[in-house]
Design goal:
The chain is mainly alpha-helical and about 110 residues long. It has seven helices and two strands, in the order H-H-E-H-H-E-H-H-H. It has one domain: Serine Threonine Protein Phosphatase 5, Tetratricopeptide repeat. Helix 3 packs parallel to helix 5, helix 4 runs antiparallel to helix 5 and helix 5 packs antiparallel against helix 6.
Length: about 110
């Protein structure tokens, strides 16, 4: 669902689906949350995606139910960085990941040449 919304630039549909799933108590898995992050980025909402990953994803303050471990990992952050790069916002996103998710940032630094 989110993948289709992102590729088709369907902002309102994506947010309606997200809100409906949250309100109905849908249990999100990490893969679905990563798809939501990608969707937000494709829609040009890199700031919302970054805030979601760095502040809410995998925490009690997220406002959604989850199934299993939904904390962001190196794959989530790499996806976010790649999307930020295409939008010319990679420096801002790098800094937020470095600040809010330092353990993941150190993994990224050791794996990739930045």
């Amino acid at each position: 669902m989110f993948d289709g919304c992102g590729h088709r630039k369907q902002d309102s549909a994506a947010f309606v689906i997200w809100t409906m799933l949250v309100q109905r108590g849908w249990k999100f898995e990490k893969d679905t949350l990563d798809t939501w992050v990608e969707c937000l980025c494709r829609l040009g909402h890199i700031d919302i995606a970054t805030n979601f990953v760095c502040t809410y994803m995998g925490t009690d303050k997220a406002g959604y139910l989850s199934e299993g471990n939904t904390t962001p990992d190196i794959d989530t952050c790499t996806l976010l960085l790649k999307m930020a790069y295409t939008l010319g916002q990679n420096l801002e996103v790098k800094e937020k990941i470095r600040q809010f998710l330092p353990k993941i940032w150190s993994q990224i630094e050791s794996r990739y040449v930045l």
